[in-house]
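Need residues for this backbone.
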């Protein structure tokens, strides 16, 4: 053996490494053609700083795009809830008119969370509230023969949104409104 050229620590290390030559050959720490140690080749298996920055930038851009889309989805969901609430109120108002002959006056319309009732008849257990801030929807009925229900929409591109004239008259601070009138 060629141990005479190696110092004591190197001989111990050589002995430990030579015990598992298959492992050493597999990972190229030991060459069978030579006696002794060989240095492991640099494989370049790591990522460069530029590659990491590019990947992080792409992830950041995708995250920004997805977050903007999620905000839009939530707004459209709340707008759908608003429209559904207004249709439910409209149905209750029509039942009220069928029994009483008129629609309730603006002052007699209950606040959100209260029941829409006349005498012992309850037409709606709870008048729904605006989903974003639990405020009331706008209800107007002056003479009891007609009414207007208005909900403010967050998505100005909603296909059911009112035109510019209706939006300006609705009093909404959001970009669009949705109006229902008696049929």
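Answer:
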């Amino acid at each position: 053996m060629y141990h005479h050229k190696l110092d004591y620590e190197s001989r111990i290390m050589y002995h430990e490494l030579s015990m598992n030559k298959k492992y050493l050959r597999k990972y190229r720490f030991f060459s069978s053609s030579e006696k002794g140690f060989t240095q492991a080749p640099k494989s370049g298996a790591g990522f460069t700083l530029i590659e990491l920055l590019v990947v992080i930038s792409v992830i950041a851009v995708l995250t920004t795009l997805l977050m903007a889309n999620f905000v839009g989805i939530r707004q459209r969901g709340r707008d759908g809830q608003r429209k559904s609430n207004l249709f439910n109120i409209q149905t209750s108002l029509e039942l009220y008119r069928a029994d009483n002959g008129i629609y309730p006056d603006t002052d007699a319309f209950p606040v959100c969370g209260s029941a829409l009732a006349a005498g012992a008849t309850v037409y709606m257990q709870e008048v729904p509230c605006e989903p974003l801030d639990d405020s009331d929807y706008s209800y107007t009925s002056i003479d009891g023969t007609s009414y207007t229900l208005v909900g403010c929409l967050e998505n100005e591109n909603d296909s059911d949104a009112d035109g510019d004239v209706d939006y300006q008259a609705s009093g909404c601070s959001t970009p669009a409104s949705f109006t229902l009138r008696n049929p």
